[in-house]
Amino acid sequence: MFRSALLLSSCLFITLPVTTVAQGTRSDYERSARLSEQTRNKVAHAKVEPHWFGADKTHFWYRRDLTGKTHEFVVIDAAQGSRQPAFDHEQLAAALSQKLGKKFESDRLDLPQLEFAEDGASIRFNAGGKGWRYAIKSNELVDAELLKTDEARPQDRPRRGGGGRTRSRGEESPDGKKSVVIRNHNLVLRDKQSGKEVTLSTDGTADDPYEGGVVWSPDSLHFVALKTRQPETHTVYLVESSPKDQLQPKLHSFDYLKPGDRIAHPKVCLFDVPAESEDVASASSPSNLPHAISDQLFPNPWSIDEIRWASDSSRFTFAYNQRGHQVLRIIAVDAQSRAATSIINEESPTFLDYAGKRFVDYVDDPHEIIWMSERSGWNHLYLYDSATGSVKNPITQGDWVVRGVDHVDEEHRQITFKASGVFTGQDPYYIHVGRINFDGSGLTWLTAGDGTHTVDYSPDRQYLVDTYSRVDQPPIIELRKVADGSLICEVDRGDWSELLATGWKVPERFTAKGRDGATDIFGVIWRPTNFDEAKKYPVIEYIYAGPHSAFTPKPFAAYHGVQSMAELGFVVVQLDGMGTSHRSKAFHDVCWKNLGDSGFPDRIKWIKAAAQKYPQLDITRVGIYGGSAGGQSSTRAVLAYGDFYKAAVSDCGCHDNRMDKIWWNELWMGYPVGDHYAAQSNVTNADKLTGKLMLVVGELDRNVDPASTMQVANALIKADKDFDLLIIPGAGHGAAESPYGKRRRMDFFVRHLLDVEPRSTP
User: Fold this and answer.
1) I want to staple 60 with a disulfide (CB 3.0 to 4.6 A). Which of 21, 50, 561, 746 is the partner?
2) 236 phi/psi in degrees, rounded to 5
3) Confidence category of residue 279, pLDDT binned at 50, 70, 90
């Protein structure tokens, strides 16, 4: 197999001739442009999409893609761990050819809406605009009803509010006798039998209305509504210079709150309604107006949601996220006394990552709550007694992180979840799947292979199909038992021989110590297909350092966009420094009020370590590019670390965190807005520019205010700094990813890091 790979790789001199002249040539550009298409569909049988069938759902079929754009259909018997062709492909092709009067090839059968009978003896499918039934053993093909397009299969989704009824306008009471509607910003109670109505509130106004519907108690005697003081209006204006339908420019505007703006302020209101024997008109008495509930425990909400009633109507609970995102609480309010208590109180001196590490599930019998927290320094699950607010026990624990909950099985008191960092010696970002009991016992890992995993469960959750891969390993697909995670069989394995034959360079996983000299930083190195170990290559870093996740690719892909940049004669790297997510809380906290850091102390050490191991990397010529948060970081690189980064291309950057969207920036930079916002702004630091910088922005960007880029440009002009500015008419967020933007970015690095005019030589 190894010798075969060598023979195949030797063919690259025919398909991808090695360029011996300087990088950045016309042939380098041409090879770069071909790379995406040349690597497409070059990995065989790398995907298994299981379609389970049979009365006991112990069998599944899948389409197996082969080399040369051919395929076959395979059936797996999960109980026996065996595989076989789904049917005789030659016979079915012959039968279809005879019936439809045209040639069908056995290794290219197109069978839309294919489904197996429960006994597996026959299949149904559409072909040639007709429906067919095919008996597998007897090779009998007969007309059948045309099958409708498959509906999307239901997916397991974690419940975030567990059992609470969603608020909807005009919601009816559980007993079906009354309803509440919102009219003129106030609440109106209506008796459904008599049609009588009465206004329950009069204090709602356009600036402070009741909105969003109501949440009824199960006994229909109470409901909760939110009265919400409206946010301030912050309008962003965009000029579309070159509209398609007229000559003159157009002015666009939209609402866009920014850090520090006044946000909506919801107030929790509890109403009593008449009992069955009372007339609805009695609801107008003062005792039935909203009860005063002290907001001492929820004074400054970013949000109030997940309102739900206890099954006995004795109380309701809601989730409170405090502005600044340092306090999360589950609040309980007694329906009679109206007293509010905190049953879960989560506080952090930095931030609580409600956007990426938030999970709550209510278990009604017994009264429990499953809650996600980083209080131990790692993201884990905890079991609460929802009556007392005490922690019954940690569910998961250890120096690893829960990445999400797949399924909560209340009957068996088990949780299936995703996690990373669980196996020593593996990349700590690789996702694995585990199962654990509510009491923290019985932890069982359902996946094992060295790679990042995705799973697909059988309908009864007795089996799972596990697909795992790495950037340097095509997918391996296994069938496992959910009961104990044991391997039943290998279902399939990706074959990348065709890909390797194109001259494709396998990306290299590389690890080096971070700023503290102890923490491992993980990244990937891409080299051009004509890489020559005797030559020197400038290094370009593709950066996205947003703290809401981690961004270095982990699963296999035959093509990454950065490979086209490498093909011009660069070594391209990508890594996740401190301040990004999915590691420990301490690792993540580096970003707190510190987005200007962008992990650069880790990145620079990592690149230097790579150059020490590989002398072909020339770190006297280092470039960097990125978009959005990556646009902010790439400009920051040449402002704060210009001694290392010599050239940067920044697309649609949120260059000043005071100018960008409110939720993202207040979560990581904190509230209220302080001096640290300005201190890390690319605008206030523009005079520190060294090296080369190109700013790219789309004039119709609705994600990041384009004025953020223009204010950097203005500051650079005032500082008398040379830079390039590319404004793309009609483009939105990510303008540099347009064909023109990509070409200009490539040219910029070829010109300034290779010191040649792009495409000037053959």
Assistant:
1) 50
2) -105, 135
3) low
Residue span(s) of the chain under CATH 3.40.50.1820 come to 2-40+499-753
Could you give the angle at which helices 629-640 and 600-613 cross, rounded to 10 degrees? 70
Element containing residue 669 per DSSP (H, E) = helix 662-669
Residue type, 383: L
User: Mean pLDDT across the stretch 183-210?
Assistant: 94
Q: Find tokens 């194109």 and name the residue.
A: 502
Closest CA to 499 of 480, 475, 474: 474
Question: Start-end ranges of CATH 2.140.10.30 in the chain?
Answer: 161-358
745 near 649, Cβ under 8 Å?
A: yes
Q: How far apart are CA 23 and CA 309, in angstroms?
A: 67
C-alpha angle with apex 352: 349 to 354, nearest 5 degrees? 165
Contact 631, 620 (CB under 8 A): no
- Residue whose tokens read 């398609």: 244
Do 401 and 355 contact (CB within 8 A), yes or no? no
Would you put residue 547 in left (φ > 0), alpha (ψ -120 to 50) or beta? alpha
Q: Tell me whether residue 399 is exposed, middle or buried, using C-beta atoms within 10 angstroms of its C-beta: 0 to 12, 13 to 18, 19 or more.
A: exposed
pLDDT tier at 280, thresholds 50, 70, 90:
low
Q: Which CATH number does the domain 2-40+499-753 belong to among 3.40.50.300, 3.40.50.1820, 3.30.465.10, 3.40.190.10?
A: 3.40.50.1820
Taking the alpha carbons at both ends of the chain, their separation in whole angstroms is 36
DSSP 527-589: --TT--TTS-EEEEEE----TTS--S--S--S--HHHHHHTTT-EEEEE--BTBSSS-HHHHH
Of 282, 259, 343, 254, the residue nearest 702 (C-alpha): 254
CA dist 539 and 624 (Å) reads 8
Q: How far is CA 640 from the centre of its chain?
A: 30
- The tokens describing 696, both together, are 């790219």
Q: Check whether 662 has a pLDDT greater than 80.
A: yes
Instruction: Indicate the DSSP class of residue 602.
Output: H
DSSP helix/strand/coil, 328? strand
Cα–Cα distance, 296 to 315 (Å, whole number): 18
Helix (H, G, I), strand (E, B) or coil at 632: helix
Tokens of 720: 């008398």
DSSP state, residue 379: -
Pairwise CA distance, residues 355 & 548, whole Å: 8
In contact, 395 and 384? CB cutoff 8 Å: no
Q: Is the backbone peptide bond immediately before 672 cis, with ω within 30 degrees of 0?
A: yes
Domain 161-358 sits in CATH at: 2.140.10.30
Per-residue pLDDT of 99-132, as tens digits, reads 999 999 999 999 999 999 999 999 999 999 999 9
- The C-alpha atoms of residue 182 and residue 310 are separated, in whole angstroms, by 25
Joined tokens for residue 611: 């150059």
Identify the pLDDT of residue 152: 43
- The amino acid that residue 431 corresponds to is I
HSE at residue 528, side-chain half, CA atoms within 13 A, is: 35
User: Which residue in 14, 100, 98, 119 sits closest to 56, CA to CA?
Assistant: 119
Tell me the two tokens of residue 388: 């007392």
pLDDT value, residue 275: 63
Percent of the chain exceeding pLDDT 90 equals 89
Residue 327 tokens read as 């306090």
How many CB atoms lie under 10 A from the CB of residue 660?
Answer: 25
Q: Quick one: tokens of 641?
A: 């670390």
Contact 415, 395 (CB under 8 A): yes
Secondary structure tally for the chain: helices H, strands E = 13, 40
pLDDT of residue 365: 85
Residue indicated by tokens 């597998």: 136
Q: Give the whole-angstrom CA distance, residue 554 versus residue 559.
A: 13
Nearest to 596 by CA among 581, 579, 583: 579
